[in-house]
Design a protein that fits this description.
95 residues, alpha+beta, OB fold (Dihydrolipoamide Acetyltransferase, E2P), five-stranded mixed beta barrel, 1 helix, 21% helix
Length: 95
């Protein structure tokens, strides 16, 4: 019984690690430039001053991405799988 439990726990642990390894990563930052011909964007993550050049997946429409836009990018192995523009917070209404 103990051996079976240990094996089950080991399998669950390995599957959990594999899921983490293949998970997409999201990062917030600013688009500094777009090269539609090359299929890349220049991206500066929040909290840094270093720009990154990222390859965009074919499913990403780079024509809709504008420089100096605050975005949240979804990455998979440094390939942009999605770009979502971050909306500016609305000013509070009332007193």
């Amino acid at each position: 019984m103990k051996k079976g439990t240990a094996i089950l726990i080991s399998v669950i642990f390995i599957v959990s690690l594999a899921a983490i390894a293949f998970a997409d990563e999201t990062r917030k930052g600013t688009v500094k430039g777009v090269d539609t011909k090359a299929g890349t964007i220049t991206f500066c993550p929040e909290g840094t001053t270093k720009d990154m050049t990222l390859k965009a997946d074919k499913s990403v429409d780079l024509d809709k991405v504008k420089p100096e836009t605050k975005v949240e990018v979804t990455l998979d192995n440094n390939t942009v799988k999605g770009i979502k523009e971050m909306k500016k917070p609305k000013a509070p209404v009332g007193c």
